[in-house]
């Protein structure tokens, strides 16, 4: 084999290896879930909350052994700043909030070892749309369980922890106790 043909063979093998590597990596990227395609029955979709990761914090909480942060879009933040729901007014249509739950873990490198968010557990959403959700207090709900092993979300069910109905009215039963607060439990954390 001549030096020229050896170089061509090495170049061809390198190109083939590159194509194979791109196919493997590309396949992983293609097969990864786009969380914005997931939705609960009756149409409430993850995509309706696109960008929630960057919304301002409404409040933090701990319940059921989970750490949570509730964030809101500008519509709900402005309403809170105007005194809703304490002023007796309802939240306006278009108000949205997301509540992200994490399993707690100990921060071992910080003195005192505080509890901090570990693996994500789930995310829940609320949207005010008095026409679309007229029969559920004007609110639509969705809860999505997170699976860290597969990095995917799926609609929560009665088998979830905590158990959830898995349609857009899943929160009505629980939130009816705060009907006088326009079905919203979360207090706005003043700054």
Q: Would you write up a description of this structure?
A:
The chain is α+β, with helices and mostly antiparallel strands and 191 residues long. The chain has 2 domains: 1-32; 35-181, 3-Layer(bba) Sandwich (Chalcone isomerase), CATH 3.50.70. It is 21% helix and 27% strand. It contains 3 helices and 6 strands. The chain has helices at residues 3-31, 74-81, 172-175, and strands spanning 57-63, 66-72, 96-106, 115-128, 139-147, 152-155. A 6-stranded antiparallel beta sheet has the order 1-2-3-4-5-6. Strand 1 (57-63) and strand 2 form a beta hairpin. The longest helix is centred in the first third of the chain and has 29 residues, at 3-31. The chain is globular and about 45 Å long. The N and C termini lie far apart (76 Å). The model is unreliable at 3-31 (pLDDT under 50).
Uncertain runs are: 3-31
Distance between the termini: 76 Å
Beta content comes to 25-35%
* Shape category: globular
Average pLDDT, all residues: 83
Q: How many β-strand runs?
A: 6
The SS-based structural class is: alpha+beta
Question: Major sheet: size, sense and barrel closure?
Answer: 6 strands, antiparallel
Number of domains: 2
CATH top level assignment of the largest domain: Alpha Beta
**Rg, alpha carbons:** 23 Å
Summarize the amount of helix as a percent range: 10-25%
Q: What is the CATH T-level topology of the largest domain? A: Chalcone isomerase
Order of helices and strands: HEEHEEEEH
By CATH, the architecture of the largest domain is named 3-Layer(bba) Sandwich
Q: What is the number of helices?
A: 3
Spatial ordering of strands, largest sheet: 1-2-3-4-5-6
Organism: Bradyrhizobium retamae
Keywords: Signal
InterPro entries: Cytochrome_P460, Cytochrome_P460_sp
Signal peptide: 1-23
């Amino acid at each position: 084999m001549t030096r020229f043909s050896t170089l061509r063979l090495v170049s061809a093998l390198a190109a083939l290896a590159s194509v194979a590597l791109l196919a493997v990596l590309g396949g992983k990227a293609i097969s990864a879930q786009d969380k914005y395609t997931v939705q609960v029955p009756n149409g409430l979709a993850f995509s309706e909350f696109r960008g929630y990761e960057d919304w301002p914090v409404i409040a933090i909480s701990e319940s059921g052994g989970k750490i949570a942060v509730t964030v809101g879009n500008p519509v709900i933040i402005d309403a809170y700043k105007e005194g809703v729901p304490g002023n007796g007014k309802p939240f306006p249509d278009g108000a949205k909030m997301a509540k992200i739950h994490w399993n707690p873990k100990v921060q071992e490198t910080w003195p005192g070892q505080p509890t901090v968010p570990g693996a994500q557990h789930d995310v829940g959403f609320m949207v005010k749309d008095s026409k679309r959700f007229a029969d559920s207090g004007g609110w639509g709900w969705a809860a999505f369980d997170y699976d860290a092993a597969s990095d995917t979300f799926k609609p929560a069910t009665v088998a979830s922890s905590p158990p959830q109905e898995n349609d857009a009215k899943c929160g009505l039963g629980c939130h009816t106790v705060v009907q006088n607060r326009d079905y919203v439990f979360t207090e706005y954390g003043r700054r």
